[in-house]
Amino acid sequence: MFQSPGEIAFTLGNIDIHWYGICMSLSMLCGLFVIFFVRNKYFKEISTDIICDLSFFLIILGLISARLYYVIVDYKYFVHHPFEIIAIWNGGISIQGAILGGVLAGLYYCKKHNLNFLQYADLFSFGIVTGQIIGRLGNFFNSEAFGLPTNLPWKLYIPYKTRPVEYRMEEFFHPTFLYESLLSLLILIILYLIISRFAPRKNGLVFCSYIMLYSVSRFIVETIRIDSVLNFGSIHIAHITSVIFFVLALFAFIYLFKKKSN
Questions:
Q1: Number of neighbouring beta carbons within 10 Å of residue 259
Q2: What are phi and psi of 156, to 5 degrees?
Q3: Is the CB of residue 208 less than 8 Å from the CB of residue 202?
Q4: Residue 80: is it exposed, middle or buried by C-beta count within 10 angstroms (0-12/13-18/19+)?
Q5: What is the pLDDT of residue 115?
Q6: Distance in angstroms (rounded) separating the CA atoms of residues 148 and 112
Q7: Among 61-70, 147-156, 168-177, whose mean pLDDT is lowest?
Q8: What percent of the chain is predicted at pLDDT more than 70?
């Protein structure tokens, strides 16, 4: 059984340091570490200075787009709580929103500096999925991103006030954040196998693979998740976005594979 020790890790003066923020910070640092590791092995021609510059740009734009996506989809809540829009330390950012914003920001940066977008997308895919592995663990401390009730040994205790109304009498739930974290670890391993097979002569295949694999894993996890506020009626927005991402990435993968094979 798992149970969150609370949202606050410690306090500095009058400032509360949240576990969620710590996990997000660690996810970024570890993501950068993996990016440099993969760069040194497969992308030695890419400048480390550009990686640092682009990473800072993507982190800022990624966080903004992740929060903006969440706020727009859950606008009914934030219309009445506008001051909470910037409170990302309480959770409430969308990985899919971060991916979308990151792609647009990456396209802009690469075009401005005359860089090969697909090559950088491949490299940064490793950092993104690494960040997801660690970042998802932040949901544990906020008692969020959980699924249907369960009595499995790894069940997660959810406080009464956090439970959906229809499950108020239940205590233990699937830790879907953990499932997604473990699936992201599997994706990281698969991406490394792909890059070792094609690297780096078929630019874009790793990135497309990442999008497809993550979309499938997110779709699966979302089927048992019950605390998602990002819904369109009874349909999870994450399901819709996952399908769109997967289809676009699949067509791009086929196009790039055939183009490079000719």
A1: 10
A2: -115, 125
A3: no
A4: exposed
A5: 96
A6: 46
A7: 61-70
A8: 94
194: tokens are 């792909």
Q: What is the 3-state secondary structure (H, E, C) of the chain?
A: CEECCCCEEEEECCEEEEHHHHHHHHHHHHHHHHHHHHHHHHCCCCCHHHHHHHHHHHHHHHHHHHHHHHHHHCHHHHHHCHHHCCCHHHCCCCHHHHHHHHHHHHHHHHHHCCCCHHHHHHHHHHHHHHHHHHHCCHHHHCCCCCECECCCCCCEECCHHHCCHHHCCCCEECCHHHHHHHHHHHHHHHHHHHHHHHCCCCCCHHHHHHHHHHHHHHHHHHCCECCCCCEECCEEHHHHHHHHHHHHHHHHHHHHHHHHHC
